[in-house]
Every structure is written in C-alpha cells, then in structure tokens.
Amino acid sequence: MNKHCFTLLLAASLTLGAAWAQVEKPAIKDDFKPCELNQPGQEYPQVNSQGYVRFRIKAPQADSVRVSLGLGGRGGTRLTKDAEGFFTGTTEGPMDEGFHYYHLNVDGGTFNDPGTLNYYGSVRWESGIEIPAHDQDFYQLKNVPHGHVQQVLFPSKSTNTSRRAFVYTPPGYEKGNKRYPVLYLQHGWGEDETAWSNQGHANLIMDNLIADGKIEPFIIVMTYGMTNEVKFGKIKEFKIEPFQTVLVDELIPYVDATFRTLASRDKRAMAGLSMGGMETRNITVNKPDVFGYYALLSGGVYSPEDLKDKTKPKLVFLSAGSKEKPDGVRNAAAALKTAGYNSVSYISEGTAHEFLTWRRSLYQMAPLLFK
Hints:
- The structure is a single chain.
- The chain has 2 domains: 33-132, Immunoglobulin-like (Sandwich), CATH 2.60.40.10; 137-368, Alpha/Beta hydrolase fold, catalytic domain (Rossmann fold, 3-Layer(aba) Sandwich), CATH 3.40.50.
- 26% of the residues lie in helices and 26% in strands.
- By secondary structure, it is an alpha+beta fold.
- The strands form 4 sheets. An 8-stranded mixed β-sheet has the order 13-14-16-15-17-18-19-20, with helices on both faces.
- Strand 18, helix 6 and strand 19 form a beta-alpha-beta unit.
- The protein contains 8 helices and 20 strands.
C-alpha cells in the first residue's frame, strides 16, 4: 500500500470513528423539566426529552453524594458539589422509559431524595422517578369514569393476624348489582400490595381499557405475597405453602363473600410479576381447579409437563421485556400452543425487569381474560 492510499484510509477511519462517536454520544438537550413524580414545589430531579436525568441535592456538610439510579458507573451517578453546598449531576446516558426506583448514597449512608415521592420497593421505601414513555397514553389519568381502589383487612387464621389487600372495583360497581370476574395480581420481591396501584397504575390501565370498550370490567385483588420473609438472592428458600393457604383458603373466600364476584374457576385469574410470577406458577400448578387463567410477567414459564393431566387453563399468558430473556418466553408459549394450550406471549420492546414491562403486559393481557 502506498503512502497516499494509507493516508486516505487513515482519514476515512478517523472520519468514521468521529461519526460513530457522534451517534453513540449525542449532545444532551437542555430541555430538562421537573419529573412528574416530584413532591409539590420541588424542581429536582429533572428529566429531558432524551431521557437523561439531572439531580440537585443540598448537603453542605457532605463530602460525597451518588445516585443509585444506573448509568454512572459503579455506584451510580456521582454528583459534584458547588460553593453553596449543592450537589448536581446528570446521568451519563438516557434511562429506559418508565418507572425506576433509586436512592442517594451520602458519605456512605443510604437516603431518599427529598425532592420526589417514595414507593415501596427493594424491601424499603425508595425514591421513584418516571421517564415519559412514547406509549404512556394507556396508563395516563384521563377524563373517563374511574373505579375505586380500597384497602381491606381480612382475617387470616393461618398467620394469626389480619392481613391487608387492595381491591380495584370498576366504574359503576357501587351503583349496580352486577357480578364480576376477579384477577388476583401479585407484586414482585421487595414490594408489597401497594405496588400495582402506585408504581403499576393498574387502576388507570383498567379505567382506560373499560372506557375504550376493549375489555369487560373485572375486579382486581392485590395482596402481600411474603408470608415467610426471604432475603434477596435466596428466593429458592421461599416456601409457597403458607402464602397458598392465605390466598386460596382465606383471601378468596373473603373476597367472594364481601364483593359481588363470579365465584368460579372460569371467572378467576391469577397473575404476578417477577417473584409474584413464581408464586402464580406454583399456586396455579398446585390448585388448577381454583384459577382458569394464568399469567407470568417476567416471572418464569410453564412447560406442557407442568400442566399435563391437570384441569386445562383457558389461557396461559407469558411476558417479559426485550432486555430480559424474550426467547425463553416465546419458545415456552410456542411449546404450550403445540401441546394444545391457549398460550400467548408478549415482549415489551426496549424494557428490562421494570414496571413499564409490567404495565404493558397488563394492558395486553387484560383484554384476553374471561373470554
């Protein structure tokens, strides 16, 4: 190769490299706005149109502040202190659309961001942030008839206490005498019975689907799934039998006696996200005569062998984010279909193990229930 050709190739390589650098790291747009989950009057955290997040924390006596919300290397996003004692910083890249938990690390201690609302996750009340999604319309608060989410306390002899559940009843429930199917919807590890309403917007998803005429209304029951506490990383030690007793022998009879339900297998569904999916899988396999519809949202899969020689489910719904293990979900649904089961898979594009995956999954699943 002559010197002239080498020079041209080098120039081309540098130009291409520069172009790739521009593609990988576009300029951050200065159109930051307060996050929609901020507490009243709080300006930070802020989110821009690209999904970058900017934080500002006042901690004049602190030496170091990091934000656990990803994209910032090990330990999260490091904030820089100014002369007035404010720590400010922006994530190195855009976040996935949807809801995320996060917290602050201040001089080695864990604290919540005073600027935003808190949500129960990771076995503690965490700060929450929302990155606007391009398809967020389906879970937005709209001017449509709304159902109600009410707290109930039900007796549990097996745990010798009263346990809590939240029950969504559809618009118009209080004014009529109609009976409704029921979906028992479980949260993930480290969360509780508030998660599907607060982080998941399950009630708004239902209200909007009903208003659009896309589903027949049904009741949703959400309860705490951790009857025996298990530390992170030791999920295999979780025993399903105590919670199965609470759900099947205590909560379901209470709901059927208290609300106007259609108390039959074909009008009862169970679904769960993550660990709630594991609970759903175990209970539906153990109690196939209790539930007619099964759904695992980033919560594992069924095989034909799991369901063989049992009362056949009317639907098996499997979902995950495209950043999880989507092929496993697709393949499992295909195997079930080949074996003669009504199975459906759904993959949430561009999301991982996070609430936008599960909001979308509920939106896709709800119209398939109770047909």
